[in-house]
Every structure is written in C-alpha cells, then in structure tokens.
Predict the structure.
Amino acid sequence: MNVNSIKQKSRIVYSILMSGVMGAAACNTAASYHKNHAHAGAKDGDIARGEALAVKYCQSCHMLPSPGLLDAGTWEKGVLPAMGPRLGIFEYMHQRYPENSQDPNVGRGFYPSQPMMTPEEWRDLITYYTALAPDSLMAPSRKEALRPDTTSFRVILPRASAGVASSPPATCFIQYDSILRQVMTSDILTHTFSRWDNQLRVLPGATVAGAVVSMVQSQGGRLACNIGAFQPNNAKAGSVDRWVPGPSSAVPDLTTVVRDLVRPVHIAEADLNGDGREDIVVCEFGYIKGSLSWLENKGDGSYEKHVLRDMPGAIRVVIEDHDHDGRPDIWALFAQGEEGIFLYTNKGGGQFAEQEVLRFPPSYGSTYFELTDLNGDGRKDILYTCGDNGDFSTVLKPYHGIYIFLNDGAVHFTQQYFFPMNGCYRAMPVDIDRDGMLDIAAIAYFADFDHHPEEGFIYLHNNGGLHFDARTVPGTEAGRWITMDVRDIDGDGRPDVLLANCSVGPLFNKGTVDWKKGPPFMLLKNNVR
C-alpha cells in the first residue's frame, strides 16, 4: 500500500469519527449561531447538520474550510456549485453545476455514480456555509503602510523590436541565464520563446507549441517545461524540451524529451536514485487531473515516470537535502484542493516518504514558496505566498499575501510574519541594499487594481527581527506581473528584478491602467549603493 492510500484511509476514519461527534452535537445542540444578515432566519438545527456534513465530506479531500473564509454569495454561487459534482450532485434547485464528465481526459467515472448525500443534506450544507459566512470580506489591515521608493530602483524597458510581436503582451515566463548572460521570456499568445541580451536587445527566438513556463540548467544544455495550454485543462499537451544553446545569433532548437504531461508548470533536476544520471521532478498542475512525479533518467534518452502524489495542483518544487544524508529530498507546494507544502524524504533506491509540512485552506490559492534562512539562525525557513484568484472565489481576500514560517530544526514550521497583499503571486528573498539581511520582492497578479494599483509590485525592506517596511516603485503599474526573477543582470554585484507582464487572463478588477499597451517585461535596475 502506498503513502497516499494510507493517508486517504486515515482521513476517512477520522471523518467518520468526527461525523459521529458532530452528528450528536447537531441533535443535542442548544447553541445559537452568529448568522449574517441575509440568512438570519436559518435554523440552528439545519446549520448544525450542515456543519457535521462538512466535517464528514469536505474534510475527506482537503483542510476543512471555515465559512468565514469567503462571503456568502461566493459560497452559494461559486464554490459549492463547483464542489457538488465531486459529491455526485450535478444539479440543485434547477441549477446545473459545472463539471468535466464530457472531457475525454476525465470522463464520467471520475465522479461518484450516486449522490453521496440527499437533497436535504445538501441544502443543510449550503445553509451552514451561507448562513455563517459574512456578507462581504473585510479589507486587509496593514501595519506597514505602503510608501513610494524612487531611489532604490530605476525602471528599464526592453528595446522595441518588430521581431517580437506582443500586443497584448502575455509573458508567462522570465528568467536570466547568468552563463549565457541572456534574459529568457515566453509568450502564451504568440507561442514564442524569446531571448534578450543584458542590454535588453532582442536575439533570435523560436516558435513553440504552447509556452515555456519553467527552465533549468542541465547537462549539456537547458531543460524547458512547456505548459501546453495556459487555461485550466486536463489534456496531455505539455512536455519537457531540451535546448542546447549555440551562438547568440542562432535560432533556438527545442527538442522534446518527455511528452504527454498534464499542464506542467514547474520542473527541477537532480540525481534522485544515485545512478549518476540527472532525473526530472515535474509539477503537472492540470485541472481536475494532475500529479507530482519524478522522471527517472534511463540513460538512453528515455524517462520512466514515478508518481509521488496523484493529485492536481502541484505548482513548485525545491530540491533540498533536509536531513543531510547526501540524498536529494523534494519539497513541493500544492495549490489546489488540499493545499500545502509536502516533503518527500529520499530513502534511496528511488523510494520517498511523504510528510505534510504545512496545510492551508482550499480558498488560499497558494502560488509560491522558497526555502531560505530569514532570521539568521542557520536553518532554512519557508517564505510562502497565496493569492490565486482565478477560480470560483474571485473576491479580494484579507489572508492573501506573504507569510514567513520559521524552522525549529525538526521539520516544524511556525508562522511568525504575515504581510497582506491582494492576489500575491510570488515573493523572493533578496538583499537589495546588501546590508546582510534578506529583503523581499513580491508581485501580485490579482492585486486590488481598482484602489491600489501600486501593489502589483512591493519591496519589503528588512529592518531586522522580521520587521519590514513596505515600499512601492513608481512605474511598475505599467504591467500585470505574473512571474519574476531576481538576478544581477549587469554584473555590478547588485541584484536586479525582472517582471513579466501577462496582460491577459481572468480578472475581476482592472483599475485604469491598460496593461495591453505595456511592455512584455520590465527590469528594475538596482540603484542602491
């Protein structure tokens, strides 16, 4: 029996036990629930039964969400209709729920053949979440006021080129290659892989099927992760491609080495089984289907797939030997359903033990994490962000932002810092002013553009003791930043910041800036001396 099946059985047992406890509470409760205004007439007994059902069914798949995480309308019209088919409920009160049974990559067999609860029970579950949820979520409160910083960075745009069509820009990847001294970008609309020298002049690029979204240096070249299609899907249209760089004037030639991946979004490489060959870890985010896997390098140009977790939502991996036994371990962030950071300890011989390190509610929309020492004690901490708002709960959330979890040295991490940042997509540690303390550069793809367009890029200056002051950079409002990279672009010893403008995609507030007229990317040149 594998790790996932053991874990699933333990969840089922726990859910059954808890359902009994909550069921008893539902029958005997005399408590009065604090209900929102629109559902003040909801009966306490219905709410209690709905709470017991939430514990029994919702918790079997992911962390039990509190009603207060979302507003009542989002529960009723967005999240619960999306969850209904997972329980075999495809229609309620003449409303047809969205599902994927017609997708040949999913099929009707993915869903329960019979409803897992009666219409009355489903009504009680809806009542529980809608009656106890607020009418609207409160805006986040920041201790650190945002202030413009006009001295730390200078905004530099790439040089215009007729050879790079980008209207509207849909840059989904940006990375600086310090060996080639080139900026790499990819555009999901034009299906181009582009290169730029360190003066941001365009070099010959290539057309690809889909778009590059991740790239790693590899033996004899580079490995590129091709997402296939940008929008949520379950098709096996993604790939891992190899590129052997030649002269700067040569058109890149990307050769596929792994096919049939389900919307892969991130890759990493390491010799995981000790055979002297570099293997690949791939995050197949997918949609309804997906997985985290490692691809064993067989030495003849082929790879054998080993699934570590057969669930969608894998979005980022970091390979780090946490127990110092000489074998590379895998840290992975899952950003859908059961959101959390998982550690796969390498036991040797291609075997891994799974451990859930951090767990987050499914409404968080996890986006990124880094392992880095943020308090100077010699232990790697976790810098984590959440802010994906492109699914069924498209409202600003006060818990979106930047989190710091400190490491006690025994794979236990405790939250010690939070900076609210609407729609935060990435935060990267970087010593901007070279004072020996790590600052944080962060972007928000789903920022509050209507009221705070300046929060699309924020720089947190480290004052020590996990105290930061928050700064914005005028001019960064010109793009909608989906990804970023932090590297020394011009070789002056100071880290610079690259921002990728993906002006397309789901959006529920857009402010007044037309990002479609903005640059494909932006360089923030470090001016701190």
